[in-house]
Write a structure and sequence with these properties.
This protein is mainly alpha-helical. Among the domains are: 86 residues, no CATH class; 35 residues, no CATH class. Helices cover 68% and strands 2% of the residues. A two-stranded antiparallel sheet has the order 1-2. The chain is rod-shaped and about 120 Å long.
Length: 195
C-alpha cells in the first residue's frame, strides 16, 4: 500500500514541471477569470513550479496512508492525465467512491463464503446421516450381528470386532466343552488353543 510520500512522488512523476507548469498557470487563470480575479502573469514560471509542488503536497495529504496501492493511485491519475489541478480537487470524491466499492466487494465476498460454508455443512450433514442412519436402524431393531457388515458395505472384507483376551478365553472355553470341536483356533495367524 502506498504511503503519502509515495503518493507525492507519483503525482510529481505524472505532472512534471517541464510539461505542466504552463498547464497549471492556464488552469488557474481560467479559474480566476471565472471568478473575476486578477490573472497571473504567464512569465511567472517559478510561481507555477511552486504551485505544482503545493498541488503534489495537497494530493499526498488527501491520500490516506497505507489504504490504496500505487497501482490504484496510478489508475486515478491516468483518469486526470492532463489535469493536475482536477487530480487534486477530485481525489477526495474518488477515495469515497473506492471505499464504497471496496465495502460492496467485501460484503459480496462474505456472502459467497457464507454460502460456501452452508453448502459444505449440508454436504457433511448428509454424509454423516448416510453413514449413521443404517447403524441406528440396526441398533434400534436389536440386530447387532449385521451392523459390522452394514458399515463395511458390500465389500468381501467385512469389519470384525476386535479380538481381546476375554473373547479369546470365551472361545477357548466353548471349544473345550464341545465334543468334536476343532481344537485349534487361529486368530490373525496365531494359534490360540495351543497349551
Amino acid at each position: 500500500m502506498a504511503t503519502q510520500k509515495q503518493a507525492w512522488a507519483l503525482y510529481r512523476r505524472f505532472f512534471p514541471e517541464s510539461r505542466f507548469a504552463d498547464v497549471v498557470v492556464k488552469a488557474e487563470a481560467d479559474d480566476k477569470t471565472n471568478h473575476n480575479e486578477p490573472l497571473l502573469n504567464d512569465s511567472n514560471h517559478s510561481h507555477s513550479a511552486s504551485r505544482l509542488s503545493e498541488l503534489a503536497n495537497q494530493f499526498a495529504e488527501s491520500v490516506p496512508a497505507d489504504e490504496f496501492s500505487t497501482a490504484e493511485l496510478q489508475g486515478y491519475l491516468l483518469m486526470c492525465k492532463m489535469k493536475p489541478v482536477e487530480a487534486v480537487s477530485g481525489i477526495a470524491e474518488w477515495i469515497e467512491q473506492e471505499r464504497a466499492e471496496k465495502r460492496e466487494r467485501e460484503e459480496r465476498e462474505e456472502k459467497r463464503k457464507e454460502k460456501l460454508r452452508e453448502s459444505r455443512l449440508k454436504a457433511k450433514t448428509a454424509m454423516v446421516a448416510e453413514l449413521v442412519g443404517p447403524l441406528q436402524r440396526h441398533t434400534a431393531s436389536g440386530d447387532t450381528s449385521s451392523s459390522s457388515s452394514t458399515l463395511s458395505g458390500p465389500s468381501s472384507n467385512p469389519v470384525h470386532d476386535p479380538v481381546t483376551p476375554q473373547t479369546t478365553h470365551l472361545v477357548n472355553a466353548q471349544l473345550e466343552n464341545q465334543p468334536g470341536a476343532v481344537k485349534s483356533l487361529k486368530i490373525n495367524g496365531v494359534n490360540t488353543l495351543d497349551s
